[in-house]
Amino acid sequence: MTARELFEYFRKDAHWVKADSKADDIRFGDENTGVIKVGCGWSDCLDNLIAAANDGCNVFISHEVPFSWETRYADITQMEWYKKRVKVLSDNNMVLMNLHDTWDHYPKDGIREGFAQLLGLKELIKEMDYIHPFSPTVTTGMNSLGIYRIEKTTAGEFAKYMCQRIAKTGAPGLCLNGDPDQTIETVAIGVGCHVPSLEAAANGAQLLIDVYDRHFQLNSRIPLVESGLPVITVEHSIPETYAMNLMAKHISEKLGIESAYYHNEPLGKYYTT
Ligand SMILES: [Fe+2]
Ligand SMILES: [Fe+2]
Q: How many angstroms separate the CA atoms of 258 and 37, rounded?
């Protein structure tokens, strides 16, 4: 199988992705390369590429669009981080592709399912679309948000439990805003940056899980907490990375191609006062 065929294998099932979408693509390397071993990870960060290259991967699939950077810079090719990544790719003849829109909603192994599995959320009671915090017309047109029933607990106890679960992904911790003693029996999660908000609460969610990359403190998290909603916030990669483990498993089980999962995104160390 070539890298292009591997890419098309996943794309063919992704009827929800617009045909002209450029969110998913082969970004580096020769698409006719024969696939030997595949590395899967949330991002094309340097440490993921180095680890995959060292393990003999000649294809790397990231979820997020590779070489993501502040768009105000026209040319990234002279930037140190970019040159380091490209050096690993070219020195190891690696092909780099990403599956973003495809994996966001891939049945069973996709992003929200992966996060639900990681958190041990089993009873899905409601799904709904995501609406961008700053534009009511920007939605995914998909059931991005899910509300899950859990055993009665408190927001604080759930936060401790979730901390243990996400530790598997290298996460150093999470932040709970709101009353830790608040009783909850439902939790809302989304798809990466497509995070739950008041709509989810209106549909029965008693705790929301969001990410720093989309829910800003001023515009979202403070008003949500003042609305009586406990909110757990983590880095953007945390709700999405585990599904890349499911992608690696899918490739080895369904395609019989050696694959591995990488989660070496720098997540820092939490210092608390
Ligand atoms: Fe994302
Ligand atoms: Fe995503």
A: 5
Q: State the ligand closest to the CA atom of 193.
A: 1
- Collapsing DSSP to helix, strand or coil, 153 comes out as strand
DSSP H helix total and E strand total for the chain: 9, 13
C-alpha–C-alpha distance, residues 210 and 192, integer Å: 8
Query: Mean pLDDT, the chain, as a whole number?
Result: 95
pLDDT tens figures, 53-112: 999 999 999 999 999 988 787 889 999 999 999 999 999 999 999 999 999 999 999 999
Pairing outcome for strands 25-28 and 258-262:
unpaired
Asked whether the whole model's pTM tops 0.90, one would answer yes
* Ligand in closest contact with the CA of 24: 2
d(CA 273, ligand 2 centre) in Å? 32
Neighbours of 223 (CB within 10 A): 12
- Residue 109 CA to ligand 2 centre (angstroms): 13
Mapped onto helix, strand or coil, the DSSP state of residue 246 is helix
Q: Which residues surround ligand 1, an ion (CB under 5 A)?
A: 192
Find the ligand nearest to 99 CA. Answer: 2
Cα(227) to centroid(ligand 2), Å: 27
Q: pLDDT under 50 in the chain at which residues? A: none
Find the 193 Cα to ligand 1 centroid distance in Å: 5
